[in-house]
Specification:
Chain B: It catalyses: Cleavage of a beta-linked Asp residue from the N-terminus of a polypeptide; L-asparagine + H2O = L-aspartate + NH4(+). Chain B: One of its GO terms (molecular function) is asparaginase activity. The complex is a heterodimer of chains A (about 300) and B (about 300). Chain A is of the alpha+beta class and about 300 residues long. Chain A has 9 helices and 14 strands. In chain A, strand 5 and strand 6 form a beta hairpin. The two termini of chain A are about 25 Å apart. Chain B is of the alpha+beta class and about 300 residues long. Chain B has one domain: Glutamine Phosphoribosylpyrophosphate, subunit 1, domain 1 (4-Layer Sandwich). Helix content of chain B is about 35%, strand content about 25%. In chain B, a hairpin with a 5-residue loop joins strand 2 and strand 3. Classes of the chains: A alpha+beta (about 300), B alpha+beta (about 300).
C-alpha cells in the first residue's frame, strides 16, 4: 500500500474549457511526487515537489495564476507539516515569490517559529536568498480578467469565488511510514489586503500526524476555519472512521453547521486514501502501486498505469 | 442558568516581582467580564471586556506591555470566537493598536473574512475609524530592558529562554445566561521573535475555539507547541468524547508535553457552566467568577476564593 500520494487542485466549479488543464495538472503533480516516493524519497520532499509543480502551473490558484486581491495584487498563503514531529511551517499574505510552499518549508526547517506573515515573511525570504519575482510574473490574463469582472457594479463576487477556489494541496505516506502534507493558495478572489484564509492555519488548511494520517483541504476558507476541517477529519479517524467516512463526516458537518462547501484529500498510515468533496467538482489525482487514479466530478474515478503519459 | 467567566494572564515561570500584579490583573479582568454578564451582556461582550482590561494592564504581554520583536517593535496577535455561529475574527502582526481583541471582533463583524494580517489589518482599522496609538505607547520600560538584555542572544539560546520566559498571552472564556459560549485570546508573542512571526494565539483551534455544543477554550504557553497539537480543538474533542472540562484540559496538556515537549495552560468553560483552569508551566495567573464568587490562583493547585458583593 505504501508509498502513496494524493493531490488536489482545488474544489469548486471549474469552467469546462479549463477542466482538462486542471486534470492534467494534478496528474503531472501526482506522477512527479510518486517518482520521488518510488525512488525512496521521503513524503515531505514528495508533497513539496507536487505543490511546486502546481504553483508553477498557471491553471491553479497558487503561485503563478493566483487570484488577485481587491487591489489587483497577489498575496499568497502556504503550509507544510511533518507528521513525524508535528513540526510545521507556514507563510501568510506573502508577495513576490514564485513558490510559497518552499518558503513555508524554510520557516519549518530554519527558524524556531511556525508561521511568518506579510513583510516579515519577505524579509525572511531575502535572508534565505529566495529570489524576489515581479508581481506581473504571478498574474495571468485569466486572473486579471476575473478580477476586473468582479469590480463591476453588477458583479456577484460570491458566485465568482465558487468559480475558482483552486487551492492546491498534497498528502503522502512514504515507505518508512512517514506522513506529510502541503497546501498553497492565492486565496479568495477580490479579498481584502492582508486577508489570511484557512490554508496557512494548522488544523484548518491541513494537518499531518504519523499516528493518525494527513488531510489537505480546499474550498471556502472561512467555513473550513470555523470547523478546523483537517483536524476534525483526523479526530473522526482517531475514533475509528475510515479515511473516506471521516472525510465525508467532516464535509457534511461543515455544510450543515456553517453552510460551507469544499473538498479534501486524506491518507492514513496504512496507505488508505480518499479524495472527497461537497462542491460540484474537485480536480484530484492519486498514485499508489504504480497506478495513477484521477477524477473531477463526484463519482468519477479513472485509473491507468503511472508510466503511461497524462490523460487528455 | 448562571453565567461564568474564566480568564488567564499567561502560563509561564512568572517571576516573584510580577506575581502580585498578575493576580490582581486577572482578578480585575474577571470582575470586568462578570459585570458585563451580570448586566445581561453576551459571552462575546464579556470576553472582549475582560481581554481589553488585560491588554490595557502593562503587567501582561498583550496590548500595552507587550514583548518586543528582534527589531524592538511590538507586533500583536488576537482572536475572538462566537460559539453560537462559529464565527471568528483574528488579527496577526498588527501594530499601533491598543486593543487588538476589539479589532479582531471588528474583522468578525464587519468583513466576510476571519483573519487580517500586518498592514492589511492596519488598513482595515483605519477604514473603520479605529484609532492608532504611537508604537512607543505600547512599550514599557521593563520590556525595553528585557529586549536590550536578550537581543544579543542567538536564536537557539533564546528558544530555551522562551520556554521559561515571556509567553504571557492573555485570554478569556465565558458562558452567558442564555448558554452561549465565547473565547478571546490576545498576545504580544514571544520575546525577540522574528519580524512577522505569528504564534498560536490568532490561529483558530490553537489559541482558542468556541462551540455552543461543546464549550470554549483559550490557550497560553509555548506557541509553536500549541500549534503542533491544535490545543484548543484537542481539548474540546476530548470533551466531545465525554471527558470533564478538567480531565480534557489535563490530558491534552500532558499530551503536548509528551509529544512535542511543550508546556502551557488552558482555561475552559462548558455550555452548562463547568469550568477549569489548568497548566503544566510553573505558574499561570487565572481567575473566574461564578455565582458572585471570585476564584483565583497562580501556583499549581492554588485555588483561592473571595465573595463578591451581590
Amino acid at each position: 500500500m505504501l508509498p502513496v500520494v494524493v493531490i488536489h487542485g482545488g474544489a469548486g466549479h471549474v469552467p469546462r474549457d479549463r477542466s482538462d488543464m486542471s486534470i492534467s495538472g494534478v496528474c503531472s503533480a501526482a506522477r512527479a511526487a510518486y517518482g520521488i516516493l518510488r525512488g525512496g524519497g521521503n513524503s515531505m520532499d514528495a508533497v513539496v515537489e507536487a505543490v511546486i509543480q502546481m504553483e508553477n502551473n498557471p491553471t491553479f490558484n497558487a503561485g503563478c495564476g493566483s487570484v488577485l486581491n481587491v487591489k489587483g495584487e497577489v498575496e499568497m498563503d502556504a503550509l507544510v507539516m511533518d507528521g513525524k514531529t508535528l513540526a510545521s511551517g507556514a507563510v501568510s499574505a506573502v508577495r513576490n515569490i514564485a513558490n510559497p510552499i518552499q518558503l513555508a518549508r524554510l520557516v519549518m526547517d530554519k527558524t524556531t517559529h511556525a508561521c511568518l506573515t506579510a513583510e516579515g515573511a519577505s524579509q525572511f525570504a531575502r535572508a534565505m536568498g529566495v529570489p524576489e519575482v515581479p508581481l506581473q510574473s504571478l498574474i495571468t490574463e485569466y486572473a486579471r480578467m476575473r478580477w476586473q469582472k468582479n469590480l463591476a457594479h453588477d458583479a456577484n463576487p460570491v458566485e465568482s469565488q465558487m468559480g475558482k477556489m483552486g487551492t492546491v494541496g498534497a498528502v503522502a505516506v512514504d515507505r518508512e511510514g512517514n506522513i506529510a502534507c502541503a497546501t498553497s493558495t492565492g486565496g479568495l478572489l477580490n479579498k481584502m489586503e492582508g486577508r489570511v484564509g484557512d490554508t496557512p492555519c494548522i488544523g484548518s488548511g491541513s494537518y499531518a500526524d504519523n499516528n493518525i494520517g494527513a488531510v489537505s483541504t480546499t474550498g471556502h476558507g472561512e467555513a473550513i476555519m470555523k470547523v478546523t476541517l483537517a483536524r476534525l477529519i483526523l479526530f473522526h479517524m482517531e475514533q475509528g472512521q475510515s479515511v473516506e467516512a471521516a472525510s465525508d463526516l467532516g464535509l457534511a458537518f461543515m455544510k450543515s453547521r456553517v453552510n460551507g462547501l469544499g473538498g479534501v484529500v486524506t491518507v492514513d498510515p496504512q496507505g488508505h486514501w480518499a479524495a472527497r468533496f461537497s462542491s460540484l467538482q474537485m480536480a484530484w489525482a492519486a498514485a499508489q502501486k504504480d497506478t495513477l487514479h484521477y477524477g473531477l466530478y463526484t463519482g468519477e474515478h479513472f485509473t491507468q498505469s503511472i508510466d503511461v503519459p497524462n490523460p487528455h | 442558568m448562571s453565567a461564568v467567566i474564566v480568564v488567564h494572564g499567561g502560563a509561564w515561570a512568572i517571576p516573584e516581582e510580577l506575581a502580585q500584579a498578575s493576580v490582581d490583573g486577572v482578578k480585575a479582568a474577571a470582575c470586568e467580564g462578570s459585570s458585563v454578564l451580570k448586566r445581561g451582556g453576551s459571552a462575546l461582550d464579556a470576553v472582549e471586556a475582560a481581554v481589553r482590561s488585560m491588554e490595557d494592564n502593562s503587567v501582561f504581554n498583550a496590548g500595552h506591555g507587550s514583548t518586543l520583536n528582534t527589531d524592538g517593535e511590538v507586533e500583536l496577535d488576537a482572536i475572538i470566537m462566537d460559539g453560537r455561529t462559529l464565527a471568528s475574527g483574528a488579527v496577526s502582526c498588527v501594530k499601533n493598536i491598543a486593543n487588538p481583541v476589539s479589532l479582531a471582533r471588528a474583522v468578525m463583524e464587519k468583513t466576510s473574512h476571519i483573519m487580517l494580517a500586518d498592514r492589511g489589518a492596519n488598513l482595515f482599522a483605519e477604514s473603520i475609524g479605529m484609532g492608532t496609538v504611537p508604537a512607543d505607547s505600547l512599550v514599557t520600560e521593563y520590556e525595553r530592558k528585557e529586549w536590550e538584555k536578550h537581543k544579543n542572544y542567538v536564536a537557539g539560546v533564546m528558544e530555551d529562554f522562551n520556554t521559561q520566559w515571556a509567553h504571557d498571552t492573555v485570554g478569556a472564556v465565558a458562558v452567558d445566561c442564555t448558554g452561549n459560549v465565547a473565547c478571546a485570546t490576545s498576545t504580544g508573542g514571544i520575546r525577540n521573535k522574528m519580524v512577522g512571526r505569528v504564534g498560536d494565539s490568532p490561529i483558530i483551534g490553537s489559541g482558542g475555539y468556541a462551540d455552543n455544543f461543546i464549550g470554549a477554550v483559550s490557550c497560553t504557553g509555548h506557541g509553536e507547541s500549541i500549534l503542533k497539537v491544535t490545543l484548543a480543538r484537542l481539548i474540546l474533542s476530548h470533551i466531545e468524547q465525554g471527558k470533564s472540562v478538567a480531565d480534557a484540559s489535563q490530558m491534552s496538556l500532558l499530551y503536548m508535553g509528551e509529544r512535542v515537549q511543550g508546556a502551557g495552560g488552558a482555561i475552559v468553560v462548558s455550555p452548562s457552566g463547568q469550568w477549569a483552569a489548568t497548566f503544566t508551566t510553573e505558574r499561570m495567573a487565572w481567575a473566574a467568577v461564578e455565582n458572585d464568587v471570585l476564584w483565583y490562583g497562580l501556583d499549581p493547585k492554588e485555588r483561592l476564593k473571595e465573595q463578591l458583593p451581590k
